[in-house]
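Running this now, will post back.
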Amino acid sequence: MSGTLYLCATPIGNLDDMTFRVLDTLKQVDLIAAEDTRNSIKLLNHFDIHTEMTSYHEYNKYDKAQYLIEQMQQGKDIALITDAGTPAISDPGEVLVAECHKAGVPVTSLPGPAACITALTLSGLSTRRFCFEGFLPSSDDKKARKRILEDLKTESRTIILYEAPHHLRAVLDDLYETLGDRKVSICRELTKKFEEVNVTTLEQAIAFYKANEPRGEYVLVLEGKSLEEQEEEKRQSWKEMSIEDHMKYYEDEGFSHKDAMKKVAADRGVGKREIYQALLEK
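Update: finished.
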């Protein structure tokens, strides 16, 4: 029988967040695949875990995935851990999971800490609808970065981003330039003694980090564009067109004159009578 891949969430700061299930699994599996074995050995030593460990990271994720799958096909159980948090989230583990599914190797996830969800719940912003963008493309890849930022410009859901301290100022500048001023919660040192959640705006955050050196890994939780804002932008774009051209647009689509007036009025956020009056005055 094939072995199983266990995705084991590990603490993002506070070691007390390690679950009993993950501890038991790490002790019982045949092999632990870790993003950085030098970092993970400290965690394993703390919990007195002596399971054999091997590296699995961004630079060997494809070749090593095949090796790990071969091991599981021979019946070995393998646990995957990342430096902190849940494997496969902004992490090379996503490749291993996909390859396991292709090979028919069972995969299960042992839930636990995730910086993105921890930050979201602390942000004070809407948690009903959200999207996770992870790290933006590097500023060296301007085309890809601009494309993602333009996509986020119209995103109505709460947006979650990761960022390193040495890139934080540039990211805040780019977000402000593309999206305008938005509410943002900037989180760092999550679950640790000096946990910080700065509930602010992009404009205020830019001013703050010009005066203060960013330190630590950051999670940004950004307000999405409200549906009301989107509707207003649509109305303004329609108003750039003359009422006659707006009517013609719908009549060319096959709408009757009466129905076209209803559509034009709805697009512009006015009553049908106002459209009727404007057409009479022409």
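The chain has a mean pLDDT of 94. More later if anyone needs it.
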